[in-house]
Amino acid sequence: MAMAVFRREGRRLLPSIAARPIAPRPIAATRSPLSSDQEEGLLGLRSISTQVVRNRMKSVKNIQKITKAMKMVAASKLRAVQGRAENSRGLWQPFTALLGDNPSIDVKKSVVVTLSSDKGLCGGINSTVVKVSRALYKLNSGPEKEVQFVIVGEKAKAIMFRDSKNDIVLSVTELNKNPLNYAQVSVLADDILKNVEFDALRIVYNKFHSVVAFLPTVSTVLSPEIIEKESEIGGKLGDLDSYEIEGGETKGEILQNLAEFQFSCVMFNAVLENACSEMGARMSAMDSSSRNAGEMLDRLTLTYNRTRQASITTELIEIISGASALEAAK
């Protein structure tokens, strides 16, 4: 637009200028108060400002593409894991009815198993389980009590190593690198049982409810000795005493097998529930990021248009002022 006006004004004024030469004389109206270097600096500043805004818009568009792609990937993974997590709930529920789940039981040796993710950008699910784990540590600590940690996941490991490094007996990462199955989780459960001594295992994880809702949950698995002890003193347990034991195995051996199988089933469900919560939280986080990027892009577009319009208006004013000065100089 500015160039069109310039050409039109130039075609109209050049014949008259060529026909009658103008004697050189000072024209105060056309003289700029700035030097040539300052004028070039201002023109360069306008050009750079629009270029900076354009580069920023390009960066925000690229970030928006990445967040949208991450949201789609998380949604795909969530659909693959959600059904398996819902089906796995039927594994540990019979054990809860049989052996009970008493998170408030007072024991001397407690092991807190904290489940987290290996990657970030998934909201506050990792900080939530860490807060619950620390609360359990304070609740079960005492002069004659011992509390230790087993960390599953890189994010909880990075947080807990800052202030509880001496209490961590085992840490496992990259559990979700391959598709989760019961055999993989049972090997992990067996490693935990071999490396720690416990009276109660407290598994802290995020239970999946929906894409935007998850609940920090604590599941308790007691050792066979504590189960037998609580059963003898009439503690709050499940329906184990209502069953008769048949065969050559003793009650202690049966409780040992049941406790190990219960822990592996609870761990399998907890890992799947936590994976679902991670994908749902990542979907929500990436959706919010995409919307924020869109809002920022709108603001940058408005800023760019205003800057560009101001530059065009300034150029038009300069051209029209110059043309008016030439008209007055005839």
TrEMBL record:
Subcellular location: Membrane
Protein's membrane topology: Peripheral membrane protein
Main location as per UniProt: membrane
CDD domains noted in UniProt: F1-ATPase_gamma
Keywords: ATP synthesis, CF(1), Hydrogen ion transport, Ion transport, Membrane, Transport
Signal sequence extent: none
Any matching Pfam family: ATP-synt
Coiled-coil residue spans: none
InterPro entries, sorted: ATP_synth_F1_ATPase_gsu, ATP_synth_F1_gsu, ATP_synth_F1_gsu_CS
Keyword Ion transport among UniProt keywords: yes
Keyword Protein biosynthesis part of the UniProt annotation: no
HAMAP family: ATP_synth_gamma_bact
Similarity section: Belongs to the ATPase gamma chain family.
Alphabetical list of NCBIfam families matching this protein: ATPsyn_F1gamma (TIGR01146)
Protein name as it appears in the record: F-ATPase gamma subunit
